[in-house]
Amino acid sequence: MKSQRLHKYILFLGIGILTSCLDNVSPNEETGPEYFTPVLSSTLGQNDFPQLERNPMSKEGVLLGKTLFYDPALSQNGKVSCASCHDPSMSFTDGLGLSNQGVSGKPLHRHAPPLFNLAWHKGLFWDGGSVNLESLVFGPLTHPDEMGADLNEVLHYLRGSSTYPALFKAAFKSDSITSALVGRSLAQFTRNLISQDSKYDQWKRNEIELDDPEIQGYQVYQKNCSSCHSEGLFTDLSYHNNGLDASYPNPAELEGIYLGRYRISFEEKDRGAYKTPSLRNIALTAPYMHDGRFNTLDEVLDHYDHGVQVNESLAPQLTDGIQLSEKERSDLLAFLNTLTDYEFIHNKAYQQ
């Protein structure tokens, strides 16, 4: 147990130092940027944190990205920030099925996904339409129903600010503020959002014990869910058609929005397929699915029990659905609740 306590101490020390440092970072145009690599728990199942040569993580870059993330002045009407749809208390989701909180007031076509452990994702958005965080951020920033920003106006605002020029200088050693640097800083902040200290993680590190229903639920998960929600990140980072609909319409004006991954890959197996969401923090991220159609986890389990729509691209794992007894369902829900990471949602380094 002494070595277990030491492991946890080292993990928390690393996280604590990072939190403290980011809380107290101030622009230093002479010495910055100070590069770092986040401390990882073995329970993530990842050996390394993927650093990008063209956009390495720095404390100043993360601070700048965090400042931009919470700034509503970037939006067309000055009222909508990234955080408007990505609230840290809900694991950076918004609790809405299809948000209408953007500048246009129109409902979106996809549910706002949670933001954590994105450093290991090869494809982003529900259909994998973006290959990296640096490019992803411009989607919601400029979309007319989300933040609706004009990048030229954003840059004019940032350059005329009393605080942003020093922040950009400290983060990138640059006297110019460009859209590329906006993307890089927002990417650094979101890439730094790491969830790895849930009750499950503490159990896997032999720091605590789970109770019997949670243990039984873990076994139900392993048997029925782990083929797509792989342990560690609790997603296989792939795309599957999970039988939400029998067919997939394609209105010309919506550019294939209902076709799932197919609109990117043009492969028939991807028709109606969407990215496997992580089960981490699943109790915080309702409603569920790419369009937020299910309000509760019970509704999700009902779907897999008797609601799967058979179609040509259905994931083979779901041909017969997933039938659970009442006890298995109860135990599974108990285990899923162990994946809630309270350290993550209360981490001051991630909050405004």
The backbone outline, from C-alpha atoms, is globular
DSSP summary, beta strand count: 2
The CATH topology label of the largest domain is Cytochrome Bc1 Complex, Chain D, domain 2
Largest sheet: spatial strand order: 1-2
Average of pLDDT: 92
CATH superfamily of the largest domain: Cytochrome c-like domain
CATH architecture of the largest domain: Orthogonal Bundle
- Radius of gyration from the alpha-carbon trace, in angstroms: 21 Å
What's this model, at a glance?
This protein is an all-alpha fold and 352 residues long. Helix content is 35%, strand content 1%.
Overview of this protein structure:
This protein has two domains: 2-196 and 343-350, Cytochrome c-like domain (Cytochrome Bc1 Complex, Chain D, domain 2, Orthogonal Bundle), CATH 1.10.760.10; 199-342, Orthogonal Bundle (Cytochrome Bc1 Complex, Chain D, domain 2), CATH 1.10.760. The chain has 13 helices and two strands. It has helices at 2-24, 59-69, 133-136, 138-142, 151-159, 164-172, 179-191, 199-204, 212-224, 262-265, 297-307, 326-337, 342-345; strands at residues 239-240, 274-275. The chain has a two-stranded antiparallel ribbon. The longest helix has 23 residues, at 2-24. The radius of gyration is 21 Å and the shape is globular.
Name the features.
352 residues; mainly alpha; Cytochrome Bc1 Complex, Chain D, domain 2; 2 domains; two-stranded antiparallel ribbon; disordered N terminus; periplasm; Cyt_c-like_dom_sf; signal; Cyt_c-like_dom
Fold topology:
Layout lengths: L1 H23 L34 H11 L63 H4 L1 H5 L8 H9 L4 H9 L6 H13 L7 H6 L7 H13 L14 E2 L21 H4 L8 E2 L21 H11 L18 H12 L4 H4 L7
Antiparallel strand pairs: 1-2
Helix pairs in contact: 2-6, 2-7, 9-12
